[in-house]
Amino acid sequence: MAVRAIRGAVQVDANERDQVLEATAELVSEVMERNGLTTDDVISVLFTATPDLTCEFPALAAREVGFSDVPLMCATEIAVPHALPRVVRLMAHVETERPRSEVQHVYLRGAQALRLDIAQ
């Protein structure tokens, strides 16, 4: 069984708690579904949020969709002047039989513009 890192991001419409939780839950669910994972496959998840998202920790959304015993961490993304606003990113470390070339990275809503080369 290999350890793989899966990237993903979602853009949120506004710095509102419900929107951050909904968008993050959607992102986490899509990463899990597209990669055929269960929470038992997840080693850890690092979430970042752009500095304009301060209303809630994105990791709370993962807890609410069943990541009760997965180590989660949140951090603030670097405040680059030309960066896409209101973005939650994740990097999940998982155990999977999939080769790196078959890992599905997930970029939703406006965040698709961040990685057109790997967005699915």
Automatic annotation (TrEMBL):
Binding-site residues for prephenate, renumbered to this chain: R7, R89, Y107
GO MF term list: chorismate mutase activity
Gene Ontology biological process terms from the UniProt entry: amino acid biosynthetic process; aromatic amino acid family biosynthetic process; chorismate metabolic process
Protein origin, superkingdom: Bacteria
Pfam family, one: CM_1
UniProtKB keywords: Amino-acid biosynthesis, Aromatic amino acid biosynthesis, Isomerase
EC number: 5.4.99.5
Record field: catalytic activity: chorismate = prephenate
Protein's name in the database: chorismate mutase
Organism: Nocardiopsis alba (strain ATCC BAA-2165 / BE74)
